[in-house]
User: Fold this.
Amino acid sequence: MEATELYKCLADPYRLRILSLLDQGPLCVCHLQDLLAVPQVKMSKQLASMKAVGLIHAERSGTWMIYSLKNPAHPLLQHNFEYLRTSASPEAERLRSDSQQRAQLLTQIEKEQNPCPAEIYACTCEAK
Amino acid sequence: MEATELYKCLADPYRLRILSLLDQGPLCVCHLQDLLAVPQVKMSKQLASMKAVGLIHAERSGTWMIYSLKNPAHPLLQHNFEYLRTSASPEAERLRSDSQQRAQLLTQIEKEQNPCPAEIYACTCEAK
DNA sequence: CAATCATATACCCTTGACAGTATATACTAA
DNA sequence: TTAGTATATACTGTCAAGGGTATATGATTG
Assistant:
């Protein structure tokens, strides 16, 4: 993929946050929805657009879709996250805060043996 | 400036090329026009948009406007150029080719003591 | 002053990105 | 099969980005 396409993805705050989250590990759509607090249709479309340019990858698991960065991740993307993680900008702060929320989510999921914890997030998922 | 704004600038091939050229030194509008082969109005508008977000800086010199990267350059921008300079992508190739053309232009200017060499480029500039 | 040059801006138009609503699809469970 | 759940897509409307043409501005020269 071309650098220009990658920059277009990074140029939207939501896509930047999504990519940053996926850079730390796969997530299903409903978790991304909750972490970023966006409606389902918006999340689905953002993900579709990034999948279309080959930046991310989707895998079905039952009724859930698990999204992850395409492997290997684009080096230019890695380069940018390396910088953003150490940056003091408000945007970088938010990426770090997203990252913390993601960690909390993962421990909750593990604790509850529940792939989609309705109790913690507003999402209406139910245990499989 | 926010990272998002920077990425928006990078997300257009022409702006990317402009920034890459300016990263190597200041240039006047007519030289940029010729190096990228774009009409004057387009170049002027692209430059205005990047000036509006504080990425670049303009300085008048007679009838010419000399554009340069704002000093100090945004570290995120530097990071990206560092990567792009070593990348093998078609876009990176073009940045390198732009860079060579710029070098040729500069030696010509020096040789001819002419700040805007009409002979080499299609531009209608005249010697001051 | 008038003429010319380099550059910027105003205006109009087209295109594409994005949001929201509704509906479709793919899967699971009863 | 029917119902329900997670996700995707179709459709529509709005808005901003970008291109082109014409014109304005600011500086220089004669």
